[in-house]
UniProtKB/TrEMBL annotation, chain A:
PANTHER family: ALIPHATIC SULFONATES IMPORT ATP-BINDING PROTEIN SSUB, TAURINE IMPORT ATP-BINDING PROTEIN-RELATED. Gene3D superfamilies: P-loop containing nucleotide triphosphate hydrolases. Pfam families: ABC_tran (PF00005). One of its GO terms (molecular function) is ATP binding. This is ABC transporter ATP-binding protein. SUPFAM superfamilies: P-loop containing nucleoside triphosphate hydrolases. Keywords: ATP-binding, Nucleotide-binding, Transport. It comes from the Bacteria. It comes from Streptomyces luteolus.
UniProtKB/TrEMBL annotation, chain B:
InterPro entries: MetI-like (IPR000515), MetI-like_sf (IPR035906). It is a multi-pass membrane protein. PROSITE patterns: ABC_TM1. It is found in: Cell membrane. Residues 1-22 are annotated as: Disordered. The lineage of its organism: Bacteria, Bacillati, Actinomycetota, Actinomycetes, Kitasatosporales. It comes from Streptomyces luteolus. This is ABC transporter permease. Belongs to the binding-protein-dependent transport system permease family. It comes from the Bacteria. SUPFAM superfamilies: MetI-like. Its main location: membrane.
């Protein structure tokens, strides 16, 4: 902890830490190498990134560029080969409990109702049940799941299932929310609506969000900063400040020149590496 | 459809596939609709049997008439009942032991690769050895009581239980397990709340195979050396060329297998309603 100010002064100017506060997520010169039967694969090379408390950062890049690997590093589900990952100033050395995780597939337990799926988080953490129930009610209301509490996953649409997964990830009020292509399996219309929801929920909760996505529009609409990654070995190509106002009405945002320039720029970056957005 | 009402709270049932509860009358009609084909086939088999016997195409001592078989079933019901009970008892005991041992073995094997690598070849070997061939050995070792019958039933029913349980425990969504570790779950919590329930559908398909095999195991045990049980009844009837009794014994034996199978299926429906409803595809997902 005391060495932190020193640490931060060494960081790249592209990832400033505003106000000198401890970054929610600190990724420092991280390499990840996998050993397969035939060869060694470098998934991530020299990745450094700081995410401020309460910031929304989106990661875009071609398939297999290590975006999901990066999230797993932050969650402590993987350890970097070299470099260091810090969560709230603390070195990540094993699975972290102060995060919420949402996958592309909702990963719900099909024998539990929506509400009991959400409460799984509380049961595993042994949260006081009254507190957990109150928080679950709050989240159910926030995500528009009222009336669906007792439905089983197979009775819910894909969008609804993903809302349940989101509630589960937010139940313990994690300071950092990690989302790995959470809306990738949804149809375009549902996806748009989920984007609007997520933006609103993020503003209401103030959680730091790290979102992996394939959709450039989604990244720009949702995030404060968009991290564009290059294909394997995954490196950070550029970090773009989207420069959109905090209040973002969906249709209006889409027509703004900042939106067009940001998406155009990102598309150009991704296109120049031979992979379309 | 559910997503159309995002800004406003969605209506009570929007987005949820509604499963109607059919009226009792309709349920009977539906059951009849589902089961008339097998019932008709069964009746056709009986009709063929009856025709063969009535036309005396085959000597009656080779194929008894349905009537003669039914007579034996009624006249000797006490005798059949007594021996059926013994076979059922052996089957159930063998099945229960096979399930307990099989499930425990599967859990240990899934959590320890060393144990799995050590046990698997032995398991396979035990499965490949014909149980009928080693049955006489068990009689030599364990005598003419019910012990060798139960042992054979256990051996024969054990394998599908282990295999299905191992498959089930391994089929858990790896993302679910990762999620569980981010929740700070203890290993036993992950096991009880995620792995075990997720494995049950697989286990039950193994149990259905195992329970019918357990009947075979018990009867094989009785064939080799017994003075009670349906296997003994059939051997006796065979020795006396009492084909009506032989047929009656076979019928009762099949009936035991079918009833046990149905009981496992009912247990599955009661324990895993989420799975049954999913499999029956009695729902539609709306977007």
């Amino acid at each position: 902890m005391p060495t932190l100010p020193n640490d931060m002064s060494l960081r790249k100017p592209s990832t400033p830490v505003r106000g000198g506060a401890v970054p929610a997520v600190g990724i420092d010169a991280v390499d990840v190498r996998f050993r397969t039967k035939k060869r060694d694969v470098t998934a991530l090379a020299e990745v450094s990134l700081d995410v401020r408390m309460g910031e929304f950062v989106a990661l875009v890049g071609p398939s297999g560029c290590g975006k999901s690997t990066l999230l797993k590093l932050v969650a402590g589900l993987l350890t970097p080969s070299t470099g260091e990952v810090r969560l709230q100033g603390e070195r990540v050395s094993g699975p972290r409990h102060d995060i919420g995780y949402v996958f592309q597939r909702a990963a719900l337990l099909e024998w539990r109702s929506a509400r009991r799926n959400i409460l799984l988080q509380a049961e595993m953490r042994r949260m006081p049940s009254a507190q957990a129930a109150a928080r679950a009610d709050e989240l159910i209301a926030m995500t528009g799941l009222e009336g669906f509490e007792d439905a089983y996953p197979h009775e819910l649409s894909g969008g609804m299932q993903q809302r349940v997964a989101l509630c589960r990830a937010l139940l313990h009020e994690p300071p950092v929310l990690l989302m790995d292509e959470p809306f990738g399996a949804l149809d375009a219309l549902t996806r748009e609506q989920m984007n609007i929801e997520l933006r609103r929920i993020w503003r209401e909760t103030g959680t730091t969000v790290l979102l992996v996505t394939h959709s450039i529009a989604e990244a720009v609409y949702l995030a404060d900063r968009v991290v564009v990654m290059s294909p394997r070995p995954g490196t950070i190509r550029e970090i773009i400040d989207v420069g959109l106002p905090a209040e973002r009405e969906y249709a209006e945002t889409m027509t703004r020149p900042e939106f067009a320039s940001a998406t155009g720029h990102i598309r150009g970056l991704l296109g120049s590496v031979g992979v379309g957005g | 459809m559910s997503q159309s009402a995002l800004s406003a709270p969605p209506a009570k049932t929007a987005g949820v596939a509604v499963r109607e509860r059919p009226s009792p009358g309709r349920r009977v009609a539906e059951a009849a609709e589902h089961s008339w084909r097998p019932v008709a086939l069964l009746l056709a088999c009986f009709a063929v049997w009856w025709a063969i016997a009535a036309a005396e195409l085959v000597e009656p001592y080779l194929v008894p008439s349905p009537g003669a078989t039914l007579d034996v079933l009624v006249d000797k019901s006490d005798y059949l009942w007594q021996h059926s009970w013994i076979t059922t008892y052996e089957t159930l005991l063998g099945f229960v032991i096979a399930v307990v041992v099989g499930v425990l073995a599967a859990v240990v094997m899934v959590y320890s690769t060393t144990v799995e690598k050590t046990l698997y070849p032995i398991l396979l070997f035990a499965q490949v050895v014909p149980k009928i061939a080693i049955a006489p050995l068990f009689v030599v070792w364990l005598g003419f009581g019910i012990a060798p019958k139960i042992l054979i039933a256990v051996l024969i029913a054990f394998f599908p239980v282990v295999i299905s349980m191992v498959t089930g425990l391994k089929a858990v969504d790896p993302e679910m397990l990762q999620l569980s570790s981010t929740m700070g779950a203890r290993p036993w919590q992950t096991f009880v709340k995620i792995r075990l329930p997720a494995s049950l559908p697989h286990l039950f398909s193994g149990l259905k195979v195992a329970v019918t095999l357990a009947v075979t195991g018990a009867v094989v045990g009785e064939f080799v050396g017994a003075n009670e049980g349906l296997g003994y009844v059939i051997l006796q009837a065979n020795g006396n060329l009492d084909t009506p009794m032989l047929f009656a014994g076979l019928l009762v034996m099949s009936l035991i297998g079918v009833v046990l199978f149905v009981l496992v299926e009912i247990a599955e429906k009661l324990l895993l309603p989420w799975h049954a409803s999913r499999r029956d595809a009695s729902m539609t997902t709306s977007y």
